[in-house]
Write a structure and sequence with these properties.
75% helix; single chain
């Protein structure tokens, strides 16, 4: 087997894959965030049936690997006559996965707002919608920023799963380049460095925000219990 030097074309291809990794991460975070907010609000809804339905959704999604969802969308739906592009399959799978985790994280943030704030809003004769929009959510947003930024690191790493459905993000681009130059150690070391360059600033920002908001030790138990440990 002849080793081919790693040239500018291969590096450019890897960087192109890194760009699509960022794009897929943004799609997952924005779409998952929008759906996650709905899930979080359902988790604290006054109706028990709504809370139960949201809880079942979270448990079902968190208990299912996003890889399985990608397989189901990309390989399963064509059997029903629906052809799903790889980008769409990866995006939908990650959006659903992110929504479940962010929904539970944000539920903890909402419930961690001190109870006197809820009671004070009720004393002002505000409707439940007004209480949430004007009193509770503004405080919950400040609490939610550090864990949300920290979770985005996991989202970036989870985009590597999209390679199994043929989507050319950073991991898939590395596989293609390695098949042409046959230098796996160098290629995957470079891929790891690019992932680190994307994730480290967010990890650093997460630590800074945690210090500014009092750190995890001072957070209410409801929020701490809501933060999941997510593997890539």
């Amino acid at each position: 087997m002849t080793l081919v030097p790693l040239g500018p074309n291969q590096i450019a291809f890897l960087l192109h894959g890194a760009v699509w990794t960022v794009v897929l991460s943004l799609i997952a975070c924005l779409g998952g965030g929008a759906l996650g907010m709905v899930v979080a609000l359902c988790r604290v809804a006054p109706l028990r049936a709504v809370r139960a339905a949201a809880a079942v959704y979270i448990q079902a999604v968190q208990g299912t690997p996003p890889l399985v969802a990608m397989f189901l969308l990309y390989f399963g739906l064509p059997g029903l006559g629906l052809n799903v592009p790889s980008l769409l399959a990866a995006s939908l799978a990650l959006i659903v996965n992110v929504s479940a985790f962010l929904g539970e994280i944000w539920r903890g943030c909402i419930e961690s707002v001190p109870r006197p704030q809820w009671e004070a809003a009720e004393c002002l004769a505000l409707s439940r919608t007004q209480r949430m929009l004007r009193v509770i959510l503004p405080q919950a947003v400040r609490i939610a920023i550090p864990p949300t930024v920290g979770f985005s690191v996991q989202v970036i790493k989870n985009t590597s799963l999209a390679s199994v459905v043929g989507f050319v993000e950073l991991a898939r681009a590395g596989q293609i380049v390695n098949n042409s130059v046959f230098q796996p150690f160098l290629i995957y070391l470079l891929i790891a460095a690019i992932y680190f360059a994307m994730c480290f600033p967010l990890s650093w920002l997460n630590r800074v925000l945690e210090r500014r908001t009092g750190g995890w030790r001072r957070r209410p138990a409801a929020l701490t219990a809501a933060i999941p440990v997510v593997s890539a």
